[in-house]
């Protein structure tokens, strides 16, 4: 049970990084739009390695448990959680990069998107 709690704590941290990246890049918390985009992209980009690390640690614990004959946790739910988070982080990163390149140097190539500037 401790391994699953640790895994879920890492996943919670990864989701927090995703949410923080989305919030920072969309809310006017920082004065410069470019700075918001960079900070948001860094947060979103950090979420995927955190999820991968969580899964790697959990798999290591499962291997140790199997070696000593201890009961192993259910793999399907934790694997599915890791995959969903990795896909979400990848998509969020791609959208962040797309938005960062669209709003570069004050010139907007998509007026419908730039019309609602913050």
Could you describe the 3D structure shown?
It is a single chain. This protein is mostly helical. Helices cover 78% and strands 0% of the residues. 23% of the residues are buried. InterPro entries: DUF202. Keywords: Membrane, Transmembrane, Transmembrane helix. It is found in: Endomembrane system. Pfam families: DUF202.
Secondary structure elements and pairings:
Layout (H helix, E strand, L loop, with lengths): L1 H25 L6 H35 L7 H28 L8 H4 L4
Helix pairs in contact: 1-2, 1-3, 2-3
Q: What labels describe this entry?
A:
single chain; 118 residues; mainly alpha; 78% helix; DUF202; membrane; DUF202 domain-containing protein; transmembrane; transmembrane helix
Question: In a few lines, what is going on in this structure?
Answer:
This protein has 118 residues and is mostly helical. The protein has four helices and no strands. The mean pLDDT is 75.
């Amino acid at each position: 049970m401790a391994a699953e709690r640790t895994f879920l704590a890492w996943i919670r941290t990864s989701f927090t990084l995703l949410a923080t990246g989305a919030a920072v890049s969309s809310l006017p918390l920082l004065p410069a739009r470019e700075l918001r985009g960079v900070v948001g992209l860094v947060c979103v980009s950090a979420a995927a390695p955190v999820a991968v690390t969580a899964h790697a640690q959990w798999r290591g614990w499962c291997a140790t448990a199997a070696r000593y004959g201890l009961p192993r946790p259910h793999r399907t739910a934790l694997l599915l959680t890791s995959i969903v988070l990795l896909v979400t982080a990848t998509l969020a990163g791609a959208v962040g990069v797309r938005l960062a390149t669209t709003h570069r140097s004050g010139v907007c190539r998509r007026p419908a998107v730039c019309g609602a500037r913050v």
